[in-house]
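COURSE: Structural Biology Practicum
ASSIGNMENT: Worksheet 4, Part C
STUDENT ID: 0417
INSTRUCTIONS: Below are two proteins. For each, the amino acid sequence is given first, followed by its structure token string. Answer the questions at the end about the second protein only.

PROTEIN I
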Amino acid sequence: MALWDAEHTVVLCPHPCFLGPGQPCDCLSPLRAAAEQLRQKDLRISQLQADLRRPPPAPAQPPEPEALPTIYVVTPTYARLVQKAELVRLSQTLSLVPRLHWLLVEDAEGPTPLVSGLLAASGLLFTHLAVLTPKAQRLREGEPGWVRPRGVEQRNRALDWLRSRGGAVAGEKDPPPPGTRGVVYFADDDNTYSRELFEEMRWTRGVSVWPVGLVGGLRFEGPRVQDGRVVGFHTAWEPNRPFPLDMAGFAVSLPLLLAKPNARFDATAPRGHLESSLLSHLVDPKDLEPRAANCTRVLVWHTRTEKPKTKQEEQLQRQGRGSDPAVEV
């Protein structure tokens, strides 16, 4: 039956519900609701089609490198057969990180040709330093590596340079000017580093921390975090140390280091307390800044390169047929 609604539109009612002249059809309201739903769907489809035709927004641009705080990576190194291999691997990781300054410190009286050439070819912004470890602090023949801390003089020489005390033998010789935003990280030459780690540490305000893999006789060692705060440490060896952290497990803001001129590594610190000898001058454990997803991700590993076996080389040398010493390895 044909009906007219309030807008004089013909509405066909499929049901025998016409109640007579002047009486409204009781199914007119559902029909209006259905028509409104169709109209809304058509409108939404039109909006989606318009969105598809619209060009996508430009991706967010990362900050310009000049706007980023500088990461100062301090690496002690010493002469041995695998030194170049270790430094090449590390330098190529560091080359992936923007706004980075490499402080490479040799355990030597002066710069060696091997390290000087490697730095010059690296393409990195670098400062080359050198200081010889005193004889009393050097490992004696047959002593295991853990008996005496290594790299102490070299790390302290890098701190001296950052504090405008000179000592650079090549590369960038001027220390960062006052007010420079930056962070200092102590990266040994034999560890393995994820590029992500450096972005985790870049915005450190005081001292930031994270886990380190394959260290301390464990799968990993590092801070325990609850509600965004460090509440303890996952470690098996001397857990009561002030800061039971590996050297690779923390970074320090440059302004904090410069504000604490007496903060240094202590070569006489008991075994395993070298990190604590520095950090105890800088921060309380409760104020450590957890990184790497609240210390649930491992982004650095305490790897060690196997000492090469050179028996055949020694045999050939005795015969006068050893490898050409002019070829740098």
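PROTEIN II
(use this one for the questions)
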Amino acid sequence: MIHSFLRRDWIGRIRLALTLFGLPYTVCTPGARPAISCSYSHNFRTSQTLGPISTSFCNLYTTGVQTMPPSSAPHVKSRCPQYPGSKINRFLVPDDKVGWSQNWPQYKPLSYTNPLVEKKPVWADPEIGSFSPKFNTVDGAVDRTSFEGSYKMEKQKPLNPRGRTGVTGRGLLGRWGPNHAADPIVTRWKVDAKGGKTLHSVSKRPVLQFVSIKRKDCGEWAVPGGMVDAGEQVSITLQREFSEEALNSLVITPAEKAKISDRISKLFKSPGFQVYKGYVDDPRNTDNAWMETVAVNFHDDSGNSVSELPLQAGDDAGEVQWVDVDSSFPLYASHSHFLELVAKERKAHW
């Protein structure tokens, strides 16, 4: 995502009572390797949840639509030649050497952990050896389970379930092993002056609109999202991130907060479509730390919950607005795929 995890308020930030129900997304500009331009887009705030990251307590549903790339596909963004935010060059890993099952004695990657992470902020683990984490389980207030299933260990360190990345350590990530995030995709129908659904001139399908934020760091449009805080349920993260980034709920008056709370609670208690849950091919990933996310679509079908609320950009967003869901609208690559899946589920134009 962005370097906003470095912002001054990542520690002790006021959490609103206005929270109920926030999967990294990443971007890698298409192109032939090794000339891959990668960027990342999740606020790194803290860590994982108190219990295993599960959405069973939420009113979610899934369909038969394939929402995740096959685990056999080698990750690409996680092998960007230069690790983001550093001068560290990754050890070049060809497609046929990504899997850990491939014997490769010549593989000698550099170890890198960002200096900020090494300062032991509240959202980061200490170095292996100075503490004894319990991997593949809930470890106190940190959920170290993975959506990918049980991951392997080597020299007391977890191994990336999707294989080699060309660098060891944690890089910019705080946790050894999985680092969990969440992305709320809030949509409504585009309507005409009479309140009827607007049909696309070519596809003749109804047009969806989604809440999109323009990132301050790169000027690109994206879905709001962020890291799951320690002791926080994914449902809480989803609503918190939407409230903070799209409605600027950190600075509004108590009366406005109460109004927004009612509207958002109504929307986030409605059935949500789980668009994606799993590993994220993120340029911050290393052999020992990686991003995972849950992306959920909440649809304001009647247009009377959040659709009527004034959008206001939060501290991580330069702008925020309702945007038509269309394949021609430029978004971070992974979010474009998320929106395509939402459009198919809602039988809307894409």
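ANSWER KEY EXCERPT:
Q1: Residues 244 and 250 are 6 Å apart (CA to CA).
Q2: The radius of gyration is 20 Å.
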